[in-house]
């Protein structure tokens, strides 16, 4: 028996306020038809004033702990692009609010690949014996970094959080994280970026440029790179696990755009109906997107015990990654 990290709980949380495509079309030069056909998104959830990433992370974390039937974890990792503050990290506040006193807690920043980066760190902590139970959270108040006047980003992103609880178990058990592959290419840093707010801006001196406060993305360039990298990374991790593409029961790809997800499935030779989709209801929630899709698909039965699951993501950095796992018997919290 080989020691492995096993998924013991899953939970998602979205803020209450729903913003429809029609609502966006009232203030931006866009339409419900454009957004639906180009992205697959119908609506998204957005935080009210005063609600932050840690609030969403706590909501999802509580549900993942409940789903696992426990109130304990000895490590908390929060993947986010929208930390409550540049300093300190968001994870310690999340751990404390979950009642997890004195446990190590840190953030991971890999934008839309953040959850998979955090999953690798969490799974490695379990397999190495550093931790017995790890709460891995992806959480974003992404609307807080969007330029409300930029139609190319405002229609895509939404707010939310998802979490899983990993426990120590064996590779042979349902729920085991089997294999992972991660990658990055810093030469693509400008494709997806918030220029301001960091050392680059402060060390330059002078007045901050207002436009540098906001998230910017070269959507078209990202589209093609995302498809290529997710397909490549998926093939790599499938080979590591010894699975054929046809062995995959469910593809849970980062919910960037329905067209991107279907293009990845097509490149892999996977029937599109094996792709899990919740992007229509929540939009692109960046680091939260994979765990939120896992929680939603568990709740509605799309994802069931015994399914062989392929996770894949692409995000700013550029970063990308994939994972293989089997799905356990689980109720979303
Ligand atoms: O999550 C992290 C990674 N991010 C992604 O994976 C996102 C990747 N990119 C995408 O999903 C797509 O590229 C977008 C959804 C961002 C854009 O879709 P697209 O099919 O690539 O459109 P485009 O950028 O090629 O633009 C087509 C047209 C342009 O007009 P012209 O130049 O053809 O006249 C845009 O100005 O659509 C226009 N456009 C819009 N029209 C109405 C761009 N945004 C909008 C909009 N409403 N919101």
Q: Please provide the ordered H/E string of secondary-structure elements.
A: EEHHEHEHEHEHEEEHEHEHHHEE
Number of domains: 2
The largest beta-sheet arranges its strands as 1-7-6-4-5
Number of helices: 11
For the sheet with most strands, the description reads:
5 strands, mixed
The CATH class of the largest domain turns out to be Alpha Beta
Shape: globular
CATH topology of the largest domain: Peroxisomal Thiolase, Chain A, domain 1
Give the helix level as a range of percent: 25-40%
- Residue-averaged pLDDT: 97
Structural class by SSE content: alpha/beta
Q: Can you list the ligands bound to this structure?
A: oxa(dethia)-CoA
**DSSP strand tally:** 13
Please, could you describe this protein's structure?
The chain is of the alpha/beta class. It folds into two domains: 3-170, Thiolase/Chalcone synthase (Peroxisomal Thiolase, Chain A, domain 1, 3-Layer(aba) Sandwich); 177-326, Peroxisomal Thiolase, Chain A, domain 1. Helices cover 33% and strands 24% of the residues. It has helices spanning 21-27, 32-39, 53-68, 91-97, 114-127, 151-154, 199-204, 219-241, 258-268, 279-282, 289-299, and strands at residues 3-13, 18-20, 43-45, 75-79, 105-108, 133-140, 160-170, 177-184, 192-194, 215-217, 250-253, 308-315, 319-326. A five-stranded mixed β-sheet has the order 1-7-6-4-5, sandwiched between helices. Helix 4 links the parallel strand 4 and strand 5. Helix 3 crosses helix 4 and helix 8 crosses helix 9. The radius of gyration is 19 Å and the shape is globular. The protein starts with a strand and ends in a 7-residue tail after the last strand. The model has no long low-confidence stretch (mean pLDDT 97). Bound molecules: oxa(dethia)-CoA. Residues 30, 34, 38-39, 112, 151-152, 155-156, 219-220, 222-223, 226, 256-257, 260, 284, 286, 314-315 line the site of oxa(dethia)-CoA.
């Amino acid at each position: 028996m080989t020691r492995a990290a096993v998924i013991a709980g899953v939970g998602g949380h979205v803020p209450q306020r729903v913003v429809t495509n029609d609502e966006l079309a009232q203030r931006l030069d866009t339409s419900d038809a454009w957004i639906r056909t180009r992205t697959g998104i119908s609506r998204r959830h957005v935080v009210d004033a005063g609600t932050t990433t840690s609030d969403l992370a706590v909501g999802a974390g509580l549900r993942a702990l409940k789903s696992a039937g426990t109130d304990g974890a000895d490590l908390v990792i929060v993947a986010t692009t929208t930390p409550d503050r540049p300093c300190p990290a968001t994870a310690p506040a999340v751990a404390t609010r979950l009642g997890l006193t004195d446990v190590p807690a840190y953030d991971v920043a890999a934008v839309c690949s953040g959850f998979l980066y955090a999953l690798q760190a969490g799974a490695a902590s379990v397999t190495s014996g550093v931790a017995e139970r790890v709460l891995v959270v992806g959480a974003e108040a992404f609307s807080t970094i969007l330029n409300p006047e930029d139609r190319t980003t405002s229609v895509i992103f939404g707010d939310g959080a998802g979490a899983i609880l990993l426990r120590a178990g064996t590779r042979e058990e349902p729920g085991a994280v089997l294999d992972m592959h991660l990658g990055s290419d810093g030469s693509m840093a400008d494709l997806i970026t918030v220029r301001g707010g960091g050392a680059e801006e402060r060390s330059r001196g002078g007045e901050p440029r207002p436009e540098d406060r906001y998230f910017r993305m070269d959507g078209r360039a990202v589209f093609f790179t995302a498809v290529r990298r997710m397909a490549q990374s998926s093939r790599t991790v499938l080979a590591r696990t010894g699975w054929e593409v046809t062995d995959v029961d469910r593809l849970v790809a980062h919910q960037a755009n329905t067209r991107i997800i279907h293009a990845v499935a097509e490149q892999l030779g996977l029937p599109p109906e094996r792709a899990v989709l919740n992007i229509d209801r929540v939009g692109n929630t960046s680091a939260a997107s994979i765990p939120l899709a896992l929680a939603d698909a568990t709740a509605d039965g799309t994802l069931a015990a015994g399914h062989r699951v392929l996770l894949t993501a692409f995000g700013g950095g550029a970063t990308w990654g994939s994972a293989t796992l089997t799905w356990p018997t689980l109720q979303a919290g």
